[in-house]
């Protein structure tokens, strides 16, 4: 078993990792089946597997994590969320992963559904740091947490957000950021954590935006700000899917190049299960 945080911390060259979604429909399943071998050929350092709002993909996430662990050379990182779960349910989820040889998790509070205005019911554990503590008590997990370069939308201000993240990283091993579009926001986050005595790896999360509507909803949930330039580029492409995809890849590649040039430890790509855009980003960066 490979502890991802240790691999990232010790890597002599930038890492390249990806995020995948468990399929929710036959069409989505077919898309993932087509994408998996293509993405595996990029030799990502790891792949994180998302967990649907309120545990809506609980078994699908578990099954995909185990499949990747057993059938591919990619090391999986399982998302686990506190929202809508009791402590005993979380214990069961974590113990199942340990029994299956999965020791890398991303501990999250959880977000509302991407579509609609539904709110998530709270879980018995309120914050992600509570899940980190629970996982630590159960076994030798390598624990990653989420970071928000521009601040979590529920934090009263950036100072409080940074303090809370620093406390999580005192117990966890690594952080992955939500998507963002300005490199300075990432390096300001890293500098702020350093001033708080935290120097654990923080991987920047990068996304090639291919839908302005979806991007706006995701930004609302994550606290990310969409620069006017990004809006204008996507809006200007109209309904031309190929043009939008090309613009999205260009935005993600340009940001990634600056991040790596200035010393980021790697790039984590939010693939949206799109193999084509991820391959193009990887190719342009010379990673994988």
Could you explain the architecture of this structure?
- This protein is an alpha/beta fold and 288 residues long.
- It has one domain (4-285): TIM Barrel, CATH 3.20.20.220.
- It is 48% helix and 15% strand.
- The protein has helices at residues 4-10, 26-40, 58-71, 87-99, 128-138, 158-171, 183-195, 212-222, 228-236, 241-261, 275-285, and strands at residues 15-20, 47-49, 76-81, 104-108, 142-147, 174-179, 202-206, 266-270.
- An 8-stranded parallel β-barrel has the order 1-2-3-4-5-6-7-8, surrounded by 6 helices.
- The model has no long low-confidence stretch (mean pLDDT 92).
Comma- or semicolon-separated keywords:
alpha/beta; 11 helices; single chain; 48% helix; 8 strands
Structural class: alpha/beta
The rounded Rg comes to 18 Å
State the CATH topology. Answer: TIM Barrel
Strand content: 5-15%
Net shape: globular
- CATH architecture level-2 label: Alpha-Beta Barrel
Cα(first) to Cα(last) distance is 20 Å
Total strands: 8
Binned, the helix content reads 40-55%
Please give the domain count. 1
Strand order of the largest sheet: 1-2-3-4-5-6-7-8
Helical element count? 11
Order of helices and strands: HEHEHEHEHEHEHEHHHEH
Largest sheet: 8 strands, parallel, barrel
Which spans of ≥5 residues are poorly predicted at pLDDT below 50?
none
The overall pLDDT, averaged over residues, is 92
Top CATH class: Alpha Beta
Question: What can be said about this structure in brief?
Answer:
The protein is α/β, with parallel strands linked by helices and 288 residues long. It has helices at residues 4-10, 26-40, 58-71, 87-99, 128-138, 158-171, 183-195, 212-222, 228-236, 241-261, 275-285, and strands spanning 15-20, 47-49, 76-81, 104-108, 142-147, 174-179, 202-206, 266-270.
